């Protein structure tokens, strides 16, 4: 371990239990130090419940639920991430250099998740705020039951995109395999374009040539007997 | 849960695949310690086949003599080794694996052929994966590719017959491992039983190999069989299949069970958690999780791959 105030605290995941590792990470952030975790080895539950600002860097892949419940820290992941990346995040930033597994940014309320590779199924499921920026492709049922926030997919989107979303916005640069129930396509507005341009610039992502915007058609907001067939299909 | 793992060497035919699989399964052992096993494939053979046969409770000599008499005219026994209730027979087959299997498994007794293959060495036992080396010496096994399993039993018994990998019963050199539940298993099983297939467990995973063997017998390629399975199986599944030439996966439309691949110039590694791959092989390559309704095949170096060796289902 290094204790220099300028250099990050270094932790070796290969020699520590996950509980010890997470406690040491939280202690370092509380004391105002950044953290570098070596040999993260795709272990699960790394960097959860970080409640203070500061930078935590994992040198390689992380497993399930990494950076879950994050509330203000900036987490960088050198490899890929497993299921439930940043699940339930409140604030802060999580950046993945590789790919993310199922359920990336599930239920986040705020903050930003950036995945430079692809996301598997159900990215941004039940998002309640925040930004999910995917440089590559997104899988099946991305943005399912999304309630608020923004998802940007620079590559292609899988089947049932934005199924049953309540609110929020999804932007797609590539092909959409199929739209989910009640998802409708709109043209991005000028404010959308400037917000997106700022996000792309901040995270070093080349903007796609064209982005389509997907929002809720709002036909599932209230039950109408006249639209029974819509409900039958959705359920 | 259940842990599944697969590895295919891209550089050579004689790799320490047993050691790699043992390390991958050890990395997945949290996903279930009830039973574990591996199916290793060697590309080159001397023409003989290996049969693993479970003969419960019989003393070594009597069991061996009984099996020898049942094999008369069908196979020449070159070598016999005993591992508890299991006999490992090295055979020169004069008849197809299906006929040899039927001859060994008399109706009414409890003899079960666990596997037959010219390229395949399939070993499994009750208990966590760490025990596989002590019993079978799998760390020393070499070959070009392998698949393995560590089980958390959820719906059927914990014993050898319910353990994985499953051999596609009666069809030489075809093995599967599965994580999930095939929920239309009863219907599929009834269908195959009406055609005369005998099942040896109540584990839904057993039907996968039977299904793939049936597809191949109908003239479909392995790739077509994997594609068809995406729609013919209900439930949650990520399963791996291995033949003498290839290793592949198929995943259910909802992507309900985990699946991660790492491809490098040297190998293809597949597991349902990346931690297995890192534990066995280090940090090389980028892990990728595919979406749902997808399958893929990789062919070993030197195998004649069909023109469309790998693809995603539409």
User: How much helix, percentage-wise, in residues of chain B?
Assistant: 10-25%
Q: Helix fraction of chain A?
A: 10-25%
- Main β-sheet, spatial strand arrangement of chain B: 7-2-8-1-14-13
Could you give the count of β-strands of chain A?
Answer: 11
Q: Please describe the biggest sheet of chain B, giving its number of strands, its sense, and whether it closes into a barrel.
A: 6 strands, antiparallel
Find the CATH topology of the largest domain in chain B: Glutamine Phosphoribosylpyrophosphate, subunit 1, domain 1
Distance between the termini of chain B: 28 Å
Helix vs. strand class of chain B = alpha+beta
Give a quick summary of the entry.
The complex is a heterodimer of chains A (235) and B (314). Chain A has 235 residues and is of the alpha/beta class.
What labels would you give this structure?
heterodimer, A: Pectate Lyase C-like, B: alpha+beta, Glutamine Phosphoribosylpyrophosphate, subunit 1, domain 1, Alpha-Beta Plaits, 2 domains, 5-stranded antiparallel β-sheet, 8 helices, 15 strands
Question: Can you describe what's shown?
Answer:
The complex is a heterodimer of chains A (235) and B (314). Chain A has helices at residues 18-30, 190-202, 228-234; strands at 9-12, 35-38, 55-58, 71-77, 91-96, 112-115, 128-134, 148-153, 169-172, 183-186, 212-216. Chain A is of the alpha/beta class. Chain A has one domain: 3 Solenoid (Pectate Lyase C-like). Chain A has an eleven-stranded mixed β-sheet with strand order 1-2-3-4-5-6-7-8-9-11-10, with helices on one face. In chain A, strand 1, helix 1 and strand 2 form a beta-alpha-beta unit. Chain A is elongated. The termini of chain A are far apart. The relative contact order of chain A is 0.08. With 314 residues, chain B is an alpha+beta fold. Chain B folds into two domains: 3-44 and 124-299, Aminohydrolase, N-terminal nucleophile (Ntn) domain (Glutamine Phosphoribosylpyrophosphate, subunit 1, domain 1, 4-Layer Sandwich); 46-118, Alpha-Beta Plaits, CATH 3.30.70. Chain B has helices at residues 17-27, 60-70, 97-104, 131-136, 185-194, 206-217, 222-232, 274-281, and strands spanning 3-9, 35-41, 49-54, 75-83, 86-93, 112-117, 120-126, 145-151, 166-167, 175-182, 235-242, 246-251, 260-263, 267-271, 294-299. In chain B, helix 1 (17-27) packs across helix 8 (274-281) and helix 6 (206-217) crosses helix 7. The model of chain B is unreliable at 308-314 (pLDDT under 50). The A-B interface holds A 41-44, 60-61, 63-64, 79-80, 82-83, 98-102, 117-118, 120-122, 139-141, 158-159 and B 253-255, 258, 260, 273-275, 277-279, 283, 286-293.
